[in-house]
């Protein structure tokens, strides 16, 4: 009995509202008259809110603007920027595509905010009798209904996001911020007060109360923005539009005092803008191979670390960046797979920041690592990252009668360190050579080839990288190189993009692109073998090549996909120079990926990168006797070829 | 004119390389038609002189002084300088040991001469052959100075043939030469030799390594390989998968993520030869591979290979090594 | 502590070696050169001593103009200044002739310590340091892994054969040849290279330092060794192959 009474007491206002709603035509209630006291009160509160907002926002803006200029930044091509802006910001394409449900929820909140821009303006103007949308006019009514649909979707969306953040609590959203809850509450309140206004009398107490609650929520919301992750509302549209213009685009060093990101003074405006844009969604961390295998690196914390540094030391500081909110150990755990940068919905470019800090540590000699120093010394003195005598490359070329490139052949076949020295890499090269010969495509190898500099580039050794890039560019030019083909996505990327800093590299393509074009000319072996294709980071995310290797695989057997594939493929652990560094902490990335590839039940793992290949050799063997075989797509493509007179080339 | 060969003591006896130097000196003596005299140096040279006399005839000079033990470059230079002035040899032959490298260049320089070191062959002239460019080239050297010619020979280059005991009655003549050494002229103070710390595994300085790979199949088979390592006096090492499985500790891992090694002998048992492993051991002086797969990449870098079942080869090899060492 | 490090520029380890027309030396025309690695260890030891005790590290190197790049590298790694003994015919001099040049350059510097690598990677004589000590009238020791400063001198750890070591004390000034591998080498950095530009590099003319007297030892001819490395597969049953291998180890490799 008592319970029932209490229940009635609680439900009374709702019942009242319900009654009111049912008895009214559904028009937005907007008080027709406001007292001057109300007008003055709102004006004072609005100014207070704006002042508070500015007081919190202006230091951030100043820090961004006081950062070092991005000398290498070019607005062109504007078309691409507009396209990205429309897709990523206006249409929320990236957000939805990567996390469909939360993405849609977020999109509704975002679109509701856009729709509400007009509503809110009218809401405030109405206070001073300057409302421009009449709730009773057809236009006004139509717009308010339009906004109401978004308000409904937004309220549902924010409720969903709230539940996810505070009930489901995924690991990458850590640490949990109570502010997010407050903000979610405010947004929910904004929507509810708007919607409720359709069901009350405009000049009744309820109507006026709803107007004020809505207005006050708005005014309370504004000052909270700058010092929470909701700053992305203001900044991220700029961040997305003002991207560096290229995936993992590493800016050239400027002048004699620039060694990369050593201290705050080296952070550029774009880096600072990005640091303040982070919305802490944790997509970067969710997909980070290092973080997923128990390592210290957390890409979200890297960006937040830069932000915390800027807040504490400012953009012109001489204080070292590493050791203050960012650790050197974590920075050197990055495989540069680019999953973070690729996933980021607010346009943060993690790689220039991570590699920038590595540059700072390596170019000044701060980074001391036994294996790293060995790699650098090998490339200071020798020609390859493996520290093997170049004579071994000569012997391999001679033994297999590979012709030298003289400018007349169609392709320069770039061997790379793995293709020239690694027994497995050599098998891949020789398979490709068989295909080239079968197709009567002429090719030649460079007499003297040095490492492209990929591992030193990603580890931040600009000195050695420049030496290697320049030596190779000279050699290619001297050979009158027209076109390059390589089995290594790392070589391809470094030649094509990173060498641009020191000259004009010839066009280069990965062998998957070549093989896909010629797949139909190759005899296929009818095979029911299931082949799971592993997307190498430097071919997929870095070069946007996903379909070509699949064409080659499909030619050789049944293509199956691993759980994470294409743009969301999971790294093998070799990139960023890490294959040359010492033992990993935590689980090996290669083992995590090998497990996933094995779980597909495939007979063969199709690889397209000699580094992935070398990582998976051990990792697949560790999966037990039933682990799939490991073959490069060149080996798959060559399977159907007739054996040469001298017997099959290994 | 004569040829002096300076013998070095090892564990109380004449070291093997010194016998090889003696072989080289004898060869030179035959060529130049000069007698070879043997020099034993130290504070107590009697046992060495006796050891030599038990095996050969000829002349032995005991270059003895209390200050010649322990070895110091200053002491040795002073003593030999005086002997050279007295003997006026045409050639001095040394084993190319760490000790010889430490003082002979200074002694030669003192006499306006240069040591022809690390000689691997001697031919008519005499022409001395030594390696250049890390063994990529051979160089033929000639001596043209007025003073004695200093030569040191590489270990193993001249085989010290076992000789029959001298016939009864024929013995070596042993004489003693006492140099004047002023203690004040010995500027370095050497301490007692000591062993490297034994508790940590230091593969990088190991002379012999037996390394095991996935071909071993189970941890239970490791003792078989350990036995071979023990017979060879080698450290046991492994490729990454073995250490990953915890069959051997991580510090025994050879390769890009483990240690880089350069032993005189690297015996790879059941290792296929992934590049990560090869980069860690390619600097080894001699590589032997045992693997059942004739196409295994390890054979690309090996000096000697046995294609076969390691479970058959390894025990046979252990027995053969034990027999050879006896 | 004022430390002089004598370094040599040698052909890069990978460099394809061709014999010059004279038959007495290699064709240097399109060779690439690098710092002799054992000397890099000597430089590293010097830099670490300076970091510990203060002082100055001076690099000295003899050779033609191209040697300057290797000197710059040493300056980039942290040496304070350098002496370049310009000499176009280094290969014509014997070890004593080269050491005479270096000694003449080092003498006026009156260093506390002279370090150099154990041997060079090209001719591999392993004598320059020891001869330098004799010419400078200084005590020396070779195959040094560690150097410690003591009152009035130094205490060093010397490598002996077969895994043995020895500690040796001596007064300074002294000459040491450094064994490779005692330290971890540092890599060259962009910052180092930029700083090196403003460091002093003084060129000394070889002819002014020491007359190139007649060498007492001459390199008459160089040649390629007879056989190249190839894998010998030992056939037969397990037992036969094992026996064959033991023979090889005993008589060809000489490790048993």
Explain this structure.
The complex is a heterotrimer of chains A (650), B (326) and C (256). Helix content of chain A is 55%, strand content 4%. In chain A, the strands form two sheets. Chain A has a four-stranded parallel beta sheet. In chain A, helix 23 links the parallel strand 3 and strand 4. In chain A, helix 2 packs across helix 10 and helix 24 crosses helix 25. Chain A is elongated, with a radius of gyration of 30 Å. Chain B contains nine helices and 18 strands. Chain B has a nine-stranded mixed beta sheet, sandwiched between helices. Chain B is elongated, with a radius of gyration of 24 Å. Chain C has two domains: 208 residues, 3-Layer(aba) Sandwich (Rossmann fold), CATH 3.40.50.620; 31 residues, no CATH class. Chain C is built from seven helices and 13 strands. Chain C starts with a strand and ends in a 5-residue tail after the last helix. Chains in contact: A-B, A-C, B-C. At the B-C interface, helix 4, strand 7, strand 8, strand 9 and strand 12 of B face helix 3, helix 4, strand 7, strand 9 and strand 12 of C.
Which tags fit this structure?
heterotrimer; A: 650 residues; mainly alpha; four-stranded parallel beta sheet; 55% helix; elongated; B: 326 residues; Rossmann fold; 2 domains; nine-stranded mixed beta sheet; five-stranded parallel beta sheet; 18 strands; 29% helix
What's the structural blueprint in terms of helices and strands?
The complex is a heterotrimer of chains A (650), B (326) and C (256).
Chain A: H1 2-23, H2 36-66, H3 78-90, H4 93-98, H5 100-127, H6 138-168, H7 178-196, H8 205-224, H9 232-241, H10 269-277, H11 283-287, H12 289-292, H13 299-313, H14 328-331, H15 339-343, H16 350-363, H17 370-381, H18 390-399, E1 411-414, H19 416-421, H20 423-438, E2 443-444, H21 454-459, H22 462-478, E3 484-486, H23 489-496, E4 508-510, H24 511-518, E5 530-533, H25 547-556, E6 558-560, H26 589-598, E7 604-607, H27 610-621, E8 629-632, H28 633-638
Parallel strand pairs in A: 1-2, 1-3, 3-4, 5-6, 5-7, 7-8
Helix pairs in contact in A: 2-8, 2-10, 3-9, 5-6, 6-7, 7-8, 9-10, 10-13, 24-25, 26-27
Chain B: E1 3-7, E2 9-10, E3 13-14, H1 16-32, E4 36-42, H2 46-53, E5 58-64, H3 73-87, E6 91-95, H4 98-110, E7 116-123, E8 127-132, E9 137-143, E10 149-153, E11 172-177, E12 189-190, E13 194-195, E14 208-212, H5 222-232, E15 235-238, H6 240-244, E16 265-269, H7 275-281, E17 287-291, H8 298-301, E18 304-307, H9 310-325
Parallel strand pairs in B: 1-4, 1-6, 4-5, 5-11, 6-10, 7-10, 14-15, 14-16, 16-17, 17-18
Antiparallel strand pairs in B: 2-3, 7-8, 8-9
Chain C: E1 2-6, E2 9-11, E3 33-35, H1 37-53, E4 56-63, H2 67-77, E5 81-86, H3 95-106, E6 113-117, H4 128-136, E7 140-150, E8 153-159, E9 164-171, E10 174-178, H5 190-196, E11 200-205, H6 206-209, E12 217-223, E13 232-233, H7 238-251
Parallel strand pairs in C: 1-4, 1-6, 4-5, 5-11, 6-10, 7-10
Antiparallel strand pairs in C: 2-3, 7-8, 8-9
Helix pairs in contact in C: 2-5, 3-4
């Amino acid at each position: 009995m008592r319970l029932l009474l209490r229940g009635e007491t609680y439900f009374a206002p709702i019942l009242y509202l319900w009654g009111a709603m049912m008895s009214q035509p559904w028009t937005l209630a907007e008080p027709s008259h406001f007292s001057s006291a109300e007008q003055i009160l709102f004006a004072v509160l609005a100014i207070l809110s704006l002042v508070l907002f500015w007081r919190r926002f202006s230091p951030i803006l100043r820090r961004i603007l006081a950062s070092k200029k991005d000398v290498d930044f070019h607005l062109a091509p504007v078309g691409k920027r507009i396209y990205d802006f429309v897709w990523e910001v206006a249409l929320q394409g990236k957000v939805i595509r990567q996390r469909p449900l939360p993405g849609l929820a977020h999109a509704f909140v975002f679109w509701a905010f856009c729709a509400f821009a007009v509503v809110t303006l009218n809401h405030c103007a109405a206070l001073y009798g300057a409302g421009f949308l009449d709730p009773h006019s057809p236009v006004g009514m139509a717009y308010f209904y339009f906004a109401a649909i978004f308000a409904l979707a937004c309220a549902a969306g924010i409720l969903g996001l709230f539940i996810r953040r505070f009930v489901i609590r995924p690991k990458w959203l850590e640490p949990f911020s109570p502010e997010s809850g407050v903000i979610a509450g405010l947004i929910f309140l904004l929507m509810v007060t708007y919607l409720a206004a359709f069901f009350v009398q405009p000049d009744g107490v309820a109507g006026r109360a709803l107007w004020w609650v809505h207005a006050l929520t708005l005014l309370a919301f504004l000052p909270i923005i700058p010092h929470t992750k909701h700053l992305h509302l203001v900044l991220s549209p700029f961040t997305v539009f003002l991207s560096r213009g290229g995936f993992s685009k590493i800016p050239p060093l400027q002048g004699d005092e620039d060694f990369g990101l050593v201290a705050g003074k080296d952070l550029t405006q774009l880096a600072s803008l990005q640091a303040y844009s982070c919305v802490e969604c944790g997509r970067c961390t969710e997909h980070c191979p290092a973080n997923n295998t128990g390592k210290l690196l957390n890409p979200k914390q890297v960006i937040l670390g830069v932000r915390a540094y800027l807040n504490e030391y400012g953009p012109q500081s001489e204080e070292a960046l590493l050791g203050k909110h960012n650790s050197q150990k974590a920075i050197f755990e990055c495989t540069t797979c680019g999953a973070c940068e690729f996933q980021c919905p607010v346009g943060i470019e993690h790689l220039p920041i991570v590699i920038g800090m590595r540059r700072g540590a390596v170019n000044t000699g701060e980074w001391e690592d036994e294996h790293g120093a060995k790699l650098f010394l090998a490339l200071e003195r020798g020609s390859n990252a493996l520290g093997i005598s170049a004579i071994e490359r000569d012997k391999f070329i001679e033994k297999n009668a590979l012709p030298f490139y003289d400018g007349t052949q169609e392709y320069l076949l770039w061997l790379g360190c793995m293709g020239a020295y690694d027994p497995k890499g050599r098998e891949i090269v020789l398979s490709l050579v068989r295909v080239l010969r079968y197709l009567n495509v002429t090719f030649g190898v460079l007499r003297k080839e040095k490492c492209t500099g990929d591992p030193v580039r990603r580890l931040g050794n600009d000195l050695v990288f420049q030496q290697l890039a320049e030596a190779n560019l000279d050699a290619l030019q001297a050979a009158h190189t027209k076109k390059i083909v390589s089995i290594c996505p790392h070589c391809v990327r470094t030649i094509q993009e990173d060498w641009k800093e020191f000259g004009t590299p010839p066009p280069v393509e990965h062998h998957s692109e070549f093989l896909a074009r010629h797949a139909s000319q190759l005899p296929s072996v009818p095979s029911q073998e299931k082949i799971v294709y592993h997307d190498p980071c430097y071919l997929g995310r870095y070069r946007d090549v996903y379909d070509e290797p699949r064409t080659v695989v499909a030619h050789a057997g049944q293509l199956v996909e691993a759980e994470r594939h294409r743009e969301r493929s999971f790294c093998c652990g070799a990139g960023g120079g890490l294959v040359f560094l010492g033992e990993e902490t935590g689980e090996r990335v290669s083992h995590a990926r090998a497990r996933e590839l094995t779980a597909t039940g495939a007979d063969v793992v199709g690889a397209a990168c000699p580094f992935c290949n070398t990582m998976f050799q051990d990792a697949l063997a560790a999966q037990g006797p039933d682990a799939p075989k490991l073959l490069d797509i060149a080996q798959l493509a060559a399977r159907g070829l007739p054996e040469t007179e001298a017997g099959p080339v290994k | 004119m004569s040829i002096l060969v300076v013998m070095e003591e090892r564990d109380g006896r004449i070291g093997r390389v010194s016998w090889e130097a003696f072989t080289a000196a004898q060869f030179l003596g035959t060529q130049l038609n000069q007698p070879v005299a043997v020099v034993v140096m130290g504070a107590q040279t009697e046992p060495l002189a006796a050891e030599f006399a038990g095996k050969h005839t000829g002349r032995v000079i005991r270059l003895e002084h209390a200050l010649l033990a322990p070895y110091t470059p200053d002491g040795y230079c002073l003593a030999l300088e005086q002997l050279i002035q007295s003997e006026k040899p045409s050639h001095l032959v040394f084993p190319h040991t760490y000790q010889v490298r430490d003082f002979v260049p200074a002694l030669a320089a003192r006499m306006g001469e240069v040591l022809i070191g690390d000689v691997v062959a001697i031919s008519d002239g005499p022409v001395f052959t030594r390696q250049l460019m890390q063994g990529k080239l051979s160089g033929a050297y000639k001596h043209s100075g007025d003073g004695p010619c200093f030569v040191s020979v590489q270990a193993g280059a001249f085989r010290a043939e076992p000789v029959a005991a001298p016939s009864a009655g024929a013995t070596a003549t042993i004489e003693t030469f006492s140099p004047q050494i002023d203690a004040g002229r010995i500027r370095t103070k050497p301490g007692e030799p000591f062993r490297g710390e034994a508790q940590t595994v230091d593969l990088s300085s190991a002379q012999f390594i037996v390394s095991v790979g996935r071909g071993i199949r189970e941890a239970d088979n490791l003792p078989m390989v350990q036995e071979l390592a023990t017979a060879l006096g080698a450290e046991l090492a492994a490729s990454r998968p073995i250490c990953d499985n915890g069959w051997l500790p991580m510090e025994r891992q050879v390769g890009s993520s483990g240690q880089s090694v350069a032993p005189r002998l690297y015996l790879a048992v059941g290792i296929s030869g992934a590049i990560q492993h090869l980069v860690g051991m390619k600097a080894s002086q001699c590589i032997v591979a045992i693997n059942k797969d004739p196409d295994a990449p390890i054979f690309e870098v090996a000096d000697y290979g046995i294609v076969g079942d390691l479970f058959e080869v390894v025990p046979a090899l252990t027995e053969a090594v034990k027999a050879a060492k006896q | 502590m004022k430390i002089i490090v004598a370094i040599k520029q040698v052909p890069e380890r990978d460099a394809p070696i061709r014999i010059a027309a004279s038959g007495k030396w290699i064709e240097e025309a399109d060779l690439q050169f690098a710092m002799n690695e054992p000397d890099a260890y000597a430089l590293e030891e010097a830099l670490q001593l300076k970091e510990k005790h203060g002082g100055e590290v001076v690099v000295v190197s003899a050779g033609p103009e191209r040697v300057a790049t290797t000197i710059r590298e040493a300056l980039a790694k942290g040496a304070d200044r350098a002496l370049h003994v310009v000499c176009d015919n280094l290969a014509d001099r014997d070890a004593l002739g080269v050491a005479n040049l270096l000694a003449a350059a080092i003498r006026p510097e009156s260093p506390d310590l002279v370090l150099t690598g154990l041997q060079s990677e090209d001719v591999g004589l392993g004598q320059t340091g020891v001869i330098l000590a004799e010419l400078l009238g200084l005590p020396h020791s070779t195959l040094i892994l560690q150097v410690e400063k003591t009152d009035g001198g130094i205490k060093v750890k010397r490598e002996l054969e077969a895994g043995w070591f020895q500690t040796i004390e001596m007064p300074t000034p002294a000459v040491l040849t450094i064994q490779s591998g005692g330290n971890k080498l540092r890599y060259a950095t962009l910052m180092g290279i930029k700083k090196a530009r403003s460091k002093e590099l003084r060129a000394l003319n070889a002819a002014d330092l020491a007359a190139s007297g007649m060498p007492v030892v001459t390199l008459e001819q160089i040649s390629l060794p007879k056989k190249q490395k190839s894998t010998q597969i030992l056939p037969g049953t397990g037992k036969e192959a094992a026996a064959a291998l033991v023979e090889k180890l005993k008589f060809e490799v000489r490790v048993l």
